[in-house]
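Dear H.,

Thanks for agreeing to be a second pair of eyes. The structure we're designing against is below in token form, covering all 299 positions.
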């Protein structure tokens, strides 16, 4: 039974990893800032993946990638690991990792829409219904009735919600260019290329902003560095590995649906770690969001 459902269990493990990763990145971001966390996370993530690829492929670096791989995966890294994560990590500080992960659930519908526009992939009525349900679930969480009659208010920082949405948009765009650039190339080596591109972009940004002193201070903060390392292990290393394992043993639809339960799996962590007070409607909203993603992928 366990062996026959390894893909589903791996997808569940991926969702848990994303929850843990987001939580530890929020913790570290509150100590040293989102920019330092984003930058150091790429370095630690690259080290972990490089060691792993050396043992499974015999190559420490993606030296066997062709020009097409490098071009499209670098663009993917720029959009996903740089632009997308720049906004996502700041949203952790503005609205918290729980709400950010909920907004990130818009990434699958955005990816599906981009797939329709760029690759001509089919979108059925049920797919569109899934998108609507996903947005409805998010709206239930972030919106409520205002003091004045017929007025609706936003429960969280609008700036933080916009940051999270831009992070979701970046992830979706990154996925599209990953699909264009990866082909049959090894996914872990492809991730290395994406990280390299993101790292180069962050280096230029930090140099332009003259923030290298902040990075040095962050590297001296042992607690923050521990949190970043743990987040990097669960995120770009174990999380990516489990997601790939899941895709090998079950359908992409089932894998994506189970992985998308992150807005639900992160709720207990938010309560335990950040002492968040979760309202019933927020749990219902998160569940509806997950159902929306399930409808999008499974029908």
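And this is the sequence the design step returned. I haven't edited it by hand at all.
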């Amino acid at each position: 039974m366990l062996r026959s459902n390894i893909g589903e269990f791996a997808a569940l493990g991926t969702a848990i990893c994303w929850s843990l990763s987001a939580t530890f990145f929020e913790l570290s971001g509150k100590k040293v800032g989102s920019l330092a966390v984003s930058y150091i996370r790429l370095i630690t993530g690259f080290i972990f993946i490089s060691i792993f690829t050396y043992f499974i492929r015999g190559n420490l670096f993606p030296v066997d990638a062709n020009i097409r791989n490098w071009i499209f995966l670098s663009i993917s890294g720029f959009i996903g690991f740089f632009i997308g994560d720049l906004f996502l990590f700041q949203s952790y500080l503005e609205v918290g990792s729980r709400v950010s992960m909920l907004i990130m659930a818009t990434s699958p519908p955005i990816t599906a829409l981009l797939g329709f526009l760029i690759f001509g992939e089919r979108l059925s009525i049920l797919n569109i219904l899934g998108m609507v349900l996903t947005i409805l679930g998010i709206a239930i969480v972030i919106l409520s009735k205002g003091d004045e009659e017929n007025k609706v208010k936003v429960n969280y920082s609008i700036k933080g919600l916009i940051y999270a949405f831009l992070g979701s948009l970046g992830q979706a765009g990154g996925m599209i260019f990953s699909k264009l650039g990866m082909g049959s190339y090894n996914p872990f080596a492809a991730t290395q290329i994406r990280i390299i591109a993101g790292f180069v972009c962050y280096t230029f940004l930090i140099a332009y902003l003259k923030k290298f002193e902040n990075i040095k201070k962050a590297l001296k903060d042992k607690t923050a560095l521990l949190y970043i390392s743990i987040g990097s292990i669960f995120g770009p290393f174990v999380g990516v590995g489990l997601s790939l394992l899941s895709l090998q043993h079950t359908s992409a639809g089932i894998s994506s649906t189970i992985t998308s339960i992150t807005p639900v799996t992160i709720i207990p962590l938010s309560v335990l770690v950040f002492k968040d007070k979760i309202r019933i409607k927020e749990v219902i909203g998160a569940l509806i969001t997950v159902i929306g993603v399930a409808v999008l992928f499974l029908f």
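Two observations from my side: The CA atoms of residues 38 and 238 lie 18 Å apart. The first helix runs from residue 6 to 32.

Warmly,
E.
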